[in-house]
Write a structure and sequence with these properties.
Radius of gyration: 13 Å
Oligomer: single chain
Number of strands: 11
Distance between the termini: 39 Å
Structural class: mainly beta
Shape: globular
Length: 125
């Protein structure tokens, strides 16, 4: 089983930046897809972005974050990052890292088998 641990969340002001980290352990991630999801208070969990582990191909379909958030990965550190820029109060929520063994970039929650515990991001106005 792949274990994922998010970190880097916290409090930021509107217009500021945060860099979230997702440390992976348990097995190789070759062929995996790594994704970021978020859940705002009182709302459903939503897909943010994803990246293929080996090729680094990115997937951005969320209109709210596209152009502001950047996903990346470090093969040496076995870590996936979510660089969040120009933060807005509506970015507030719990951010989750997830892993899919399917090897295909996807926004579907059910295709991600492993999930981190989440890290809280709060953006003040």
């Amino acid at each position: 089983q792949v274990q994922l641990v998010e970190s880097g969340g916290g409090l930021a002001q509107a217009g500021g930046s945060l860099n979230l980290s997702c440390a992976a352990s348990g097995r190789t991630f070759s062929g995996y897809v790594m994704g970021w999801f978020r859940q705002a208070p009182g709302k459903d969990r939503k897909f943010v972005t994803a990246i293929t582990w080996n090729g680094g191909t990115t997937y951005y379909i969320d209109a709210a974050t596209k152009g502001r958030f950047i996903i990346s990965r470090d093969n040496v550190k076995n870590t996936v990052y979510l660089q969040m820029n120009s933060l807005k109060p509506e970015d507030t929520g719990v951010y989750y890292c997830a892993a899919s063994a399917g090897g295909v970039l996807t926004y579907a929650d059910e295709q991600y088998e492993s999930w981190g515990q989440g890290t809280q991001v709060t953006v003040s106005s």
